[in-house]
Predict the 3D structure of the following.
Amino acid sequence: MKLHKDRQKFINWLSIAIIAILLLALFLVGTFLDLQIARKVGNPNSFFGVFFDWFGKIIYSLPLFIGIVLTIKSLKEHFNKKIKKFIEYSIYFGFWAIVMTIFLAEGLNKYLNNSVIDDGIIISLVLNSALVSLIFLGVVLYVDTDPEWIIEDRRLIRHVILMIIFIVIVNLSVLILKEIFARPRPQTIFAENSLEEYRPWWKIRYTGKNRSFPSGHVAAASTMLGLTILFDKEDSKGKYLIAHLVGWICILLVGFSRMIMTAHFLSDVVAATIIAFVTLVGVTSLRNKQCKFKCFKLPAKEEKNG
């Protein structure tokens, strides 16, 4: 048993070390080649770039919605809270409506104020809205039809809270750093008659008018990694690995789309990813510690007879 735990711990730290080395290597590449890479990959007319650029504006809602659904289900299962179906689904619908209203309002405002008519924006809005709506529906149906893992995890509400803490720390950190570094975006530098010049990330100006470093979209995409906090690595290994895979794919797609749209340099994208990864490691270690707060110590499972 001890040998298995030691082996598992070694694999965990090895995985963390490999990811950290890869991220630092990419950050180093960006530090020296940001401008050259931005000129090479930049293509603001790319539909791929536009689609995942807008996906990055709504992706944060997915882990939050999953957290809401699991919290309600866990309350019903563990605390015998009589939450009526009508109220439960009203909460789901209300959250969906708020997310869609904000997302579509921002998209339509961008479309109407754009000097050039860009149908790619409208198509991206429609497709992303449909995609997220289907995922919301799929989450509710899946949890309704397969609630066993919710019943088995007695600390699920605590894990949801830790996931929200992870999301807040990452996005707040990136927001603060944006204001401090005030780095010009590639699109600002490349614009005709632009007065802005390329500036490496380490040259801080505190101007407050540029917000390229780190990437806010990538910070939003990294919230998908927060789903790994919900699943136990031993008991729900499949869900844990899928959550990791989906999270990293989302970061890759959104990050690359921001570079294509000339909204960020490579170092901007990687910096946000590093912040998310370090925060995830910290919150995950906290998750694995024994909880000392009584409010999170759910009643013990009752053994089933027969």
